[in-house]
Every structure is written in C-alpha cells, then in structure tokens.
C-alpha cells in the first residue's frame, strides 16, 4: 500500500496541514517517518491508519424528537417600570389640538 504525503492525507481527511501536523504531534494519527534527517521528519501516512482515525472520530447524533421530553428551563420573570405607549393615540391627540387652535 502506498504511503500518502501530508497533502494527500489532508485531502483524504478534509483538514488542513496545520491540523494534520497538530494531530500527528498529539499522537492521534500514526505516521511513518521516511526521512533520514535528525532535525526534521518526513512524515507519510497509510490510508488504513487514516480510515481508522476517521472511524474512531465518527459520531452519530441522536434524534432529539425521540429522546424524550425536553427539559424546561426555569422561567425568568421580568418586571419593568415602562408602560406601553399608544403612539397613534398620541398622534391623534396632537392633531386634534392643532385643529382646535
């Protein structure tokens, strides 16, 4: 099985290279170092390892409508010193005052 470059692995997983690098450094995705250098690794990835990682991360969301009743949150009472203003009534009153003058 051929080894995938980081670019190919990113395309397979649908993630960016920075994310792949972070996952590799965190030990979440196995890789093969094909380089001989001591300062910088040359990572390659096996498709089976990428598929195993995807399977491990796969989640299935359950349908909330069949899980049971939704817990009710506590109602919050709000009190306000403001009153509802009837703007049309105020406008009509002003217009009638203008007519009376």
Kindly state the percentage of residues in helix.
40-55%
Uncertain spans: none
How would you sum up the major sheet?
Answer: 2 strands, antiparallel
Proportion of residues in β-strands:
under 5%
Distance between the termini: 96 Å
Q: Report the oligomer.
A: single chain
Explain how this protein is built.
This protein is mostly helical. It contains four helices and two strands. It has a two-stranded antiparallel ribbon. The longest helix is centred in the last third of the chain and has 14 residues, at 87-100. The chain has a domain at 6-57.
Features:
101 residues; mainly alpha; two-stranded antiparallel sheet; 2 strands
Write the layout of secondary structure elements.
Blueprint: H1 6-13, H2 17-25, E1 32-33, E2 43-44, H3 47-57, H4 87-100
Task: Please summarize what this structure is.
The protein has 101 residues and is mainly alpha-helical. The chain has a domain at 6-57.
